[in-house]
Design a protein that fits this description.
Zinc Finger, Delta Prime, domain 3, 333 residues, 15 helices, 5-stranded parallel sheet, Rossmann fold
């Protein structure tokens, strides 16, 4: 976060919703920003935050970018802006962080004319104890405080918390809007494929372009393909994938789930728009012609289960080894 915040072209409807709260002077105590990763939920929440902290907002309620409040926000030193996040990605938001928040909220905001804003991300990382403690913040709101919860999986939040939040649903932008924005950002090669791999999320597609994800994904697929052919030592691959730092294992498993889903689609002669990995068509079709569908479905479930268990205390390398062993056995039938 630095300088003047902004919203993306596909967030116009969301911003009109937030603008209405400001202009009507009916600021919700809590807002829940939901939607898939890579769509700019955090950026939208920060733009709204800066507007609430701005001392001289513009006619459209956007922050001026020049007042004391905006400058403090840009410098990440605003005393009335708090962020609550896990210590490490994938970890839970423990009760200690919520207790510290409750203590801070007991004090009045530093600036009398503006709000105090708290961003909690990912809100679904609250565990049972911290969620119960946070519920008190919602049941006993403090003066001029706005709580912004950001979640990719809002269904994981307790209903008691969701019901006390106004909803800001961040939808996936139209494909032409996303592609136009990507091209404006200098992403001119394989734009369609990048957006497909990012499941329509423009910011994620831009990240993929900047980090050569198409080439990296190709390397992972080739190793997976060699395991299917019995030409690769799967335990070595499992260790390599688990220890690498370039890529989150959840991304690898999302790719794998996509490969298996496409194999099943090819088995049913699906139309090309339904295919998530068109550049891998030949290899995936070859697998579709020789693999048993029932076993493919079971393996697909295994991939999704493994992905859902990544944030648990289970041994990740062991889970990955078991998954690749299943893949190898499926190809030997």
């Amino acid at each position: 976060m630095s300088g003047q915040t902004a919203i993306y072209p596909w967030q116009a409807d969301n911003w009109r919703q937030l603008c209405a709260y400001i202009q009507q002077q009916r600021i919700p105590q809590a807002l829940l920003f939901s939607g898939a990763a890579g769509q700019g939920r955090r950026d939208l929440a920060e733009h709204y935050t800066q507007s609430l902290l701005c001392h001289t907002p513009l006619a459209d309620s956007s922050p001026c970018g020049h007042c004391v409040g905006c400058k403090l926000f840009a410098a990440q030193t605003h005393p009335d802006f708090l962020t609550i996040e896990p210590d490490e990605p994938g970890k839970a938001l423990g009760i200690d962080k919520i207790r510290q928040l409750i203590v801070k909220l007991a004090l009045k905001p530093q600036y009398d004319a503006a709000y105090r804003v708290v961003i909690i991300q990912p809100a679904d990382a609250l565990n049972n104890a911290s969620a119960n403690a946070f519920l008190k913040c919602l049941e006993e709101p403090t003066e001029r405080t706005c709580l912004l919860l950001i979640s990719e999986q809002p269904s994981r939040l307790p209903a008691t918390i969701r019901s006390r939040c106004q909803k800001v649903a961040c939808a996936t932008p139209a494909r032409e809007v996303a592609i136009s924005w990507l091209q404006q950002q200098g992403v001119s090669e394989q734009t369609e494929l990048l957006l497909t791999l990012a499941q329509g999320s423009p910011l994620l597609a831009k990240h993929y372009a900047e980090h050569n994800m198409i080439q990296l994904r190709q390397q992972y697929f080739e190793a997976w393909w060699r395991i299917a052919q019995g030409k690769e030592h799967l335990l070595t691959i499992a260790e390599l994938w688990q220890k690498q730092e370039k890529l989150d294992l959840a991304v690898v498993l999302r790719w794998m789930a996509g490969w298996v889903a496409d194999i099943i689609k090819y088995a049913y002669r699906a139309d090309s728009p339904a295919i998530a990995n068109p550049d891998l068509k030949n290899a995936l079709q070859a697998l579709a012609e020789r693999l048993e569908l029932k076993r493919l479905y079971r393996f697909y479930d295994n991939v999704l289960t493994t992905k859902s268990q990544l944030n648990t205390q289970l041994n990740k390398q062991l889970m990955l080894e078991q998954l690749l062993i299943s893949w190898s056995q499926l190809n030997r039938q």
